[in-house]
Amino acid sequence: MLARLRFPVDRSRGRRYPEPEHPYRNAFQRDRDRVVHSRAFRRLEAKTQVFTPGLSDHFRNRLTHTIEVAQIARTLANVLQLDEDLTEALALAHDIGHPPFAHAGEEALNGEMERFGERFDHNLHALRIVESFELRYARFPGLNLSFEVREGIVKHSHDFAAGESPLLDAYLPGWRPPLEAQLIDPADEVAYNTADLDDAWSAGLIVAEDVSEAVPQYREIHQAVETQFPGATERERFYEALRQLIDLLVSGLIEGTVTAAEASGAAGFEDVRAHPARLAQFTPEAGETSRALKRFLYTRVYASDALGSDRRLSMARIAELFRFFLASPERLPQPYAQQALEAPAHRVVCDYIAGMTDAFFLRTYELMLSPAAIRPLS
Ligand code: MG
Whole-angstrom Cα distance, residue 360 to residue 363? Predict the structure, then answer.
């Protein structure tokens, strides 16, 4: 397949702080293990993906979503004969920079930072976690990950040009990341589009016929399932169709990537970097299905009234707690209170809140702002 484009682990630009090699794990395998053992990774369990817990015990959280992305990304890397360890490390790390309350949290923090001419970006935050905030090693701050993993963390969802951010300038601006990193964003897209359909169906927000109306390829699959399993329950038919939809999207991604790689003439990983566009891509048909799913989920799920009230409440609370700590940085725990004396307080407050789980955020909010009993999100 694309073994010629695999990023060779022995060509890594290495770690910031040199370390002796491990006897039987290569650099990318160690990076993957370091991500799994980080605190930021464990916190994913208590961070919302899309649906806040309460209505069901079966909704994805950011950890189970991450595991689904890793599973899809590993399959892709394996079939395409790319480096599965690098791909897995990046998939496991791809959401560790997410604040509490999913995109509502990100939007709220970004809104607060914009008042200071800055922004909150979860990929940049993830880089700072693995570079500085994780304190587990006596020899260095952070996880001391290989260059390509750090590069993939900041580049997995978009490329950037030189001068965009001083933090990013060390990560080959203007160049594409290795193909392994390029797989993460479309693998994430397959995972969340299909998982959000599943969770929205479980929440009773949608039925299969709604998806059929909006997404032609889903309609074909669902009709075939009805013919094939006439006695199946609605639930069984929905899950049969959902599994086939994942398969169709993953297969479309494999085929699209192979086609793009062949058309590019790329003969090695350096050519992947130099190519003007990313090579990891869906076939046109699978890409259209993915976009149709996104449009459907946006109108019927993400922007629905059911999710809207939680979202507005979460955003308002994050803004409120941000402003509280900004006005009273001495109420921050150590070492943040000390940092707020030495660095811009808005940056310290943003980092503190961004690291919180949903539950820790609510406890802190209650402690600082709402002595009266505060209801958890429904
Ligand atoms: Mg994700």
Answer: 5
Ligand 1 center to 347 CA (angstroms): 24
The number of distinct structural domains making up the chain is: 2
**Using the 8-state DSSP alphabet, how is residue 332 labeled?**
S
Site of tokens 């160690």: 30
Distance CA 272, CA 262 (A): 11
**CA–centroid distance, residue 266 to ligand 1 (Å):** 28
- pTM beyond cutoff 0.85: yes
Residues 258 and 344 in one domain: no
Q: Are residues 196 and 336 in the same domain?
A: no
Residues above pLDDT 90, as percent of the chain? 88
Q: What are phi and psi of 48, to 5 degrees?
A: -65, 140
Q: Which residue has the tokens 């990100």?
A: 106
Distance CA 34, CA 149 (A): 11
The domain that holds 197 is classified in CATH as: 1.10.3210.10
Measured in angstroms, how far is the CA atom of residue 137 from the centroid of ligand 1? Answer: 27
Closest CA to 103 of 349, 375, 310: 310
As a whole number, mean pLDDT of residues 65-92 equals 98
What span, in angstroms and rounded, lies between the C-alpha atoms of 253 and 282? 4
Shared domain check, 275 and 149: yes
